[in-house]
Design a protein that fits this description.
Rossmann fold, 3 domains, 26 strands
Amino acid sequence: MINTELHSPPIMPDLLIEGLNRHNEEPCLFLGENTATYREVREATSKMVQALLEQNLGIGSRVAVLSANRPEVLYNIAAMQLSGCAGSPLHPLGSLDDHVYALEAAEIDALVYDPTAFDDHAAALKDRLPNLKLLSFGSSKVGLDYLALSARFSPMPLSAPDVNPDDISSITFTGGTTGKPKCVMSTYRATAYMSQIQLAEWEFPSELRMLIATPLSHAAAAFFVPVLQQGGAFYVMQGFTPDAFFDMVQKHQITATMLVPVMLYFLLDSPRAKGNGMASMETIFYGASPISPGRLREAIELWGPIFYQFYGQSEAPMVLANMKRDEHDLTHPERLGACGRPTPWMHLALLDEKGEQVSRGEPGEICVRGPLVMKEYKDMPEQTRKVFSGGWLHTGDVGKLDEDGFLYIVDRTKDMIVTGGFNVFPREIEDVLSRHDAVSQAIVVGVPDEKWGEAVKAVIVLKPGLSANELLTEELQELVKKAKGSVHSPKSIDYEESLPMTPVGKPDKKTVRARYWAETSRDVG
């Protein structure tokens, strides 16, 4: 008889326990006026585990979280892992309908929420979903007081739940670039493997003071184990602004953070960007959406080679490719358009429409295999079959590899513009536009065109203090024409104060595109 436990690897609950047990009185969390040591985080986690189990929320249960940044979010992330609950973060900026969809699609049993920000919202969710159990971080109108429930228990030694590596650990949602977001079912094996790759490859400072500038419910889950394993501490912002960010970095001598590109642009456009406020920073991890090579160069020139890029997606998160700090080499400016080298811990191939590998330097769909890959899309067998066709996870991203093995994301397959029979990838045009000194952000989409089927349109946010004019538009069009050819040059450019963003901080190309197609529909009607 084969002993299946004999070769079972440590998974996320094991890694969390080991990390939390490494230290006692060393600082683990700073958030506003709240500070917590490793021992305090460990004890708070234990109490929450016992409270969840008392509420019959354990192995196989599904728990969503909706909260502003507060210490209990971190404790609860650990408690859900150690009770065996599958976690599902809801974005604080999501709408009521978005959250109802997510809770129903994921078949969520309970919602843990922050009553100071979401009490009325939780009540509205309860009206729509009467069987949803509500646990609130404190007293509330409609939820059980999760903190009071936890306070009734004494801390116990942490222990891992009896789960298997292939059981569901987390439930997240795709960005929803087409149709409704898909429900991604990730396993304990996948989340542990992601942490192991981070610890093997990512360049964390030796003294790790990690600034969390994004929602803690999302970011902490990705960085929890690496920070604990480094003996580091979380420094959490309660809301992102450039001034608050620079203040935190200077006050606490922050050594690492994680940013999405649009946050980096806001920092670069701040008057404080050229000061010495970033002197302590050793690593800025960035990813989640494509970055402008021009703006990345600007950041490196200001703050030095402290940038580390990661690439992944919900179905295989964060660590498919990594570009290290010294690979952000200004003597190779073309490399700033890459997302790094593929990780050796996953199989990665660029495939054509027949499922065959393309030649080096040619574009193909990025496809991966390995323990990082999700289990399935929940209740979507046809979409699951399609995305796993040929025994690969098809990411939907088009990429190419250069001679040095660096991976470049050409674009999303769904974002490709077909104009006059030519295939045009918006990402390439956005990169060119962002080189211009006046441009802060750029989105390129295809819009209806009677002659060509689709025409290339750019939507641009200018840097502070600048205004649009016909000469600037002509300069930008000519810039693209020289770099990529006339087919790629935007036929029209619109200027906006800001771009719509998805809840996870990506420029919302779907919303921008829909605006122009809707206008055409009205004209036709």
